[in-house]
Structures are given as C-alpha cells and as structure tokens.
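User: My advisor, Dr. K., asked me to get a structural model of this assembly before our group meeting. I'm new to this, so sorry if the format is off. These are the inputs:
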Amino acid sequence: MSVESNLLVVDAGNTSIKFTALLGGQVLWVSRGDTYPVDTDFVPDVIYFASVRSKELSALLRADIQAEFPQSQWLTLKSQDYACGVRNAYVEPERLGIDRWLGVIAAHHLVKGDVVIVDAGTAIKVDVVNQAGVHLGGYIAPGLAMMEDALLSKTARIRYEAHEVVAGQGLPNSTARAVTEGCHEMALGFLERIYRRYSTFKWVVTGGDAQRLLDVLGVALECQPNLVALGAKLVGDERLRGDK
Ligand SMILES: Nc1ncnc2c1ncn2[C@@H]1O[C@H](COP(=O)(O)OP(=O)(O)O)[C@@H](O)[C@H]1O
Ligand SMILES: CC(C)(COP(=O)(O)O)[C@@H](O)C(=O)NCCC(=O)O
Ligand SMILES: [K+]
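Assistant: The format is fine. Below is the predicted structure of the whole assembly, which you can bring to the meeting.
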C-alpha cells in the first residue's frame, strides 16, 4: 500500500462501530454508528477490518461494506502472538480481543516506554505492555452502561428517568445518582487499584467512556481516541508489506 493510499479502518465494538478514514497515516475523519457514513465521498483503496462481534454479525458487516467498496483491498485483522514489535501475553493469542491487541500495539509505538492502556467501552479493558513490547496481560470489567443495565434488568425497583441523572454534591441521595455514581465508583476503584501497582507506567486511555470516566481519576494520562485505528494501521501495513 502506498503511503498516500486512502485507508478505512472499521473497528466494530459491541456497542458501536468506529469508521476511521486515514490518508498517509493522518486521520481525516471518524464516524461512529452502525453503518458507513453517507455524507462522505471518501473511497478507500484499502480497508482494515477489526471486529469483536460474532462471526455472523462480522460477516454481515463485511458484506455491507464490501458492497459499498467492491474495488477496495480488504484485510481482516486478527490477534496474533507477535506483530509490530509486540509479543501477545495470551497463551492462546487469537483469543485476545482484536481491539485490545491493536490498542496495545498502538500504545507501545506511541509511548515508547512502559504503558497501561485503558479502553472504556462496552467493557472496560486494561492492558499492560512494557517498554520492550512485551504484553504482560490485562483485565476485563463491565463498562458503565453494562453495570447500570445489570442493575436495571435484575431489580424491580431500580428505575429512574434520564433527566434524574444529575451531577450532585456529597453522597448520592437519589436512585439515579446512587446507581450512576455507584457504577462510576466501581470502575474508578478498579482503576485506582491498578494505578497503585503501575503508577510508574505511562497511562493511555481510549474508548467512548474514557473522558466521562477518567476525568476524575486524578492520574496523568494521555487521551488517544483513535488508538485502535492507529494500531490497525500499524498491523495492516505490516501485513501488506509482508505479503509483498
Ligand atoms: N455517539 C455515541 N454512540 C454510542 N456510544 C457513545 C457515543 N458517544 C459516547 N458513547 C459512549 O461510549 C460507549 C461505547 O464506547 P465504545 O468505545 O464505542 O464501545 P465499543 O467499542 O465497546 O463498541 C457507550 O457506552 C457510551 O457511553
Ligand atoms: C472484552 C471485549 C468484549 C471488549 O469489547 P468492546 O468493549 O470493545 O465491545 C473484547 O475485547 C473481546 O471480545 N475480547 C475477547 C476476550 C479477551 O480479550 O480475553
Ligand atoms: K472497543
């Protein structure tokens, strides 16, 4: 792929799909939704596809995108034991979520040191990779919406309207605040425990809930909203070079 090719990265998470258009490694635009954006005349030369959805849903999404761009070269990215200078910690490397794998690789190349990656999405993922590019492993915990949904779906009386979710002072004094702030505290407690063990590492955060969650963490961290897409470019470009 030439440096000046139009690249589309499709990052299909369990909540939303992120479509990222790149030219020469620069991000032109990002669209988050369930279908490819209609308000663009961008035609990708190459498409890198990274999906954590089921095989069936991923195949349907692939068919939709390839129908839109039949001429584009297609690469489905999978987690591997080694890529772009990074060694996967998993005993079964292919079972590591591709979003985690790409985030780890991008963070290793961006930070060039010991780094903790927090990806706050449907689930909250934390991965640790050292400056030598060795992925040490990581955690998966429920995302904020998932925690709230669990409380709503498993109880009879935890019910509240969106307008009741307000920022308050002191301990929560409503169902809405008790739930939303309780879930925040759960996630922050999880992250603070990890920070106590890895406070000397650089912290890089991404994912739809990163801003909402991490502003209050009080940790020096680097926000990288396009981390997974950047990792996809590194891995996909290496694969295409290797296929030459
Ligand atoms: N436009 C949006 N659409 C969906 N979720 C969004 C949006 N903006 C922010 N979010 C937040 O991001 C979360 C999803 O984050 P994301 O990283 O896209 O998840 P995933 O990669 O698991 O699909 C949602 O739970 C929501 O709180
Ligand atoms: C943990 C995840 C579901 C997170 O996906 P997301 O929150 O982006 O929807 C995904 O990384 C995944 O399917 N992982 C496979 C299991 C593992 O990583 O061990
Ligand atoms: K994700």
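One thing worth pointing out at the meeting: Residues 82-144+175-229 form a domain with the Nucleotidyltransferase; domain 5 fold (CATH 3.30.420.40).

User: Perfect, thanks a lot.
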